[in-house]
Design goal:
single chain
């Protein structure tokens, strides 16, 4: 299957699910209606493989770079809390930095890692995003934009190919972005629900272990 096809197929599936009400918590966090989310996903599908040329003849895939970053910046601009914006950016930079480190280490000794490179990148992005923040849309954007930034920095850092011959956010990158997005949507709510249940159970156990009369005074 050609690079980018899986990402496009996943985007179409997400588009259908969102229009039928799936992912309501993520949309509520983003203050976005299902129609608006469907519009962004439709734009992703329509502009997959469409590139724009910026200064120095650098090519950018609209769906793989421009749309994810534009959506995140737009959502950040609607957030009045500067602390949340700061944590948002720190989270994305952390995901991007972690992935760049992995993208440096994996080609050196692929046999050392149990998983394939692409699967490992997605798992790391999803784990960092899911564990770091409770807001589902913030976690989603952290994983997706962090992945997009890492895939732009890695070839520049290691000079894997000439910049003018590259398409930043190409087919393989779009697949990684969509798999990361689906991973966050599937596991973010589940992870935080389990954490809340464990936290409540521990608090209940601690209360039961405390003596009813309180601490004794000598």
């Amino acid at each position: 299957m050609n690079p980018g096809v899986q990402g496009t197929m996943l985007a179409i599936v997400l588009l259908i699910l969102v229009l039928f009400g799936w992912g309501s918590k993520t949309l509520e966090d983003a203050k976005m209606t299902p129609r608006m989310a469907g519009l962004w996903l439709a734009l992703y599908v329509l502009f997959s493989g469409v590139t724009v040329v910026w200064p120095y003849q650098i090519q950018w895939d609209v769906a793989g770079v421009v749309l994810p970053i534009a959506l995140t910046v737009w959502e950040m601009s609607n957030s009045p809390n500067l602390t949340q914006r700061f944590h948002w950016w720190i989270g994305m930079m952390t995901v991007a930095a972690s992935l760049v480190i992995l993208m440096t280490l994996v080609p050196l000794d692929p046999a050392f890692f149990l998983l394939e490179a692409e699967s490992l990148y997605v798992i790391v992005a999803v784990l960092f995003a899911v564990i770091t923040v409770r807001r589902p849309f913030a976690a989603l954007s952290m994983a997706v934009v962090g992945m997009a930034l890492a895939t732009m920095v890695d070839p520049l850092l290691h000079q894997r190919t000439e910049v003018t011959r590259m398409v930043f956010g190409g087919g393989e990158v779009r697949d990684l972005l969509l798999y990361s997005a689906v991973g966050v949507l599937l596991f973010h709510g589940l992870y935080h629900s389990v954490v809340r249940l464990i936290s409540r159970a521990l608090k209940h156990m601690l209360k039961q272990q405390q003596p009813e009369g309180g601490p004794e005074h000598v």
